[in-house]
Amino acid sequence: MPKKLDVRVTTMDAELEFSIEGKGTGRDLFDLVVKTVGLREIWFFGLFYNDTKGIDAWLRFDKKVVDQDVPKGSPLNFQLRVKFYPEDVAEELVQEITQHLFFLQVKQQILDMEIYCPPEAAVLLASYAVQAKYGDYDPDVYQPGFLNSDKLLPQRVLDQYQMSSEMWEERIVSWYAEHRGMLRDEAEMEFLKIAQDLEMYGVNYFHIKNKKGTELWLGVDALGLNIYEKDDRLSPKISFPWSEIRNIAFHEKRFTIKPSDKKSPEFSFFAPMLRINKLILQLCV
């Protein structure tokens, strides 16, 4: 009997445990996970983990799980995460479970301040999150303070204003009351439609350096590749839309973007290590 592998996969709202064949591939495990969750729009997702050096990584589907740089242990730990973001959530996310997993992940990224969200938008998004969780507002049931146990706003927003939790709740509830009649999936979709217009939504950021050694950020998203100054991840300094990129390649730590217009100069940068370039390339194809 081939040795079995015990695996734990965490989604945004559940923890799943599996036992797979020792020679099982990343594809075998992924297929098992999405079948269990009931996910059909699988092309947006991947299995995320931190490798033995603590670097973010995505499980490759074409290789055995045991042949990848997954920290040893039992069970092996992975997260089912959104890997690729659509240009338009309302047009491209069809299945309710897909929308729900997107909603939970993006909501957490905003709360963790991985996505910058201005205060006004944060309050409106919070009101849709409350509608999705509690349903229609009923002042007889939901007394003041009912949101005390919910984390709804990024700490950056809370720190920006001298406002009590009661004042924040009042602002959120004033919007929440207007969402009457909205079902959970509708509220989550309204949340995503607003969130997708935030500058940092759907962008995977990587520390890079240019030829002069200047520290920069590379952003990979649904529209292309963007280069940002070290202190500004909101406004790209240079953008390369996918339609204007002829080729991308890396050798060791050096990564090169070749524009479609052969008269345009190539752009090269350096990642801290080879495995970062492999991760960037995975997100580009």
List keywords for this structure.
alpha+beta; globular; five-stranded mixed beta sheet; 31% helix; 8 helices; 12 strands; four-stranded antiparallel beta sheet; 285 residues
Model description:
31% of the residues lie in helices and 25% in strands. It is α+β, with helices and mostly antiparallel strands and 285 residues long. The strands form three sheets. A five-stranded mixed sheet has the order 2-1-5-3-4, with helices on both faces. A four-stranded antiparallel sheet has the order 6-7-8-9, covered by helices on one side. The longest helix is centred in the middle third of the chain and has 16 residues, at 96-111. The model has no long low-confidence stretch (mean pLDDT 95).
Q: Report the biggest beta sheet as strand number plus sense, adding barrel if it closes.
A: 5 strands, mixed
Number of strands: 12
Q: Quick check: average pLDDT?
A: 95
Distance between the termini: 37 Å
Bin the strand percentage. Answer: 15-25%
Low-confidence stretches: none
Radius of gyration (Å): 21 Å
Order of helices and strands: EEHEEEHHHHHHEEEEEEEH
The helix content, as a percent range, equals 25-40%
Principal-axis shape equals globular
Count of helical regions: 8
Lateral arrangement of strands in the main beta sheet: 2-1-5-3-4
Question: What structural class should be given to the helix and strand makeup?
Answer: alpha+beta
Q: What is the fold's blueprint, element by element?
A:
Elements: E1 4-10, E2 15-21, H1 26-37, E3 45-50, E4 56-58, E5 76-82, H2 89-92, H3 96-111, H4 119-134, H5 155-160, H6 165-176, H7 184-195, E6 204-209, E7 215-221, E8 224-229, E9 238-241, E10 245-251, E11 254-259, E12 267-270, H8 274-284
Parallel strand pairs: 1-5
Antiparallel strand pairs: 1-2, 3-4, 3-5, 6-7, 7-8, 8-9, 10-11, 11-12
Helix pairs in contact: 3-7, 4-6, 4-7
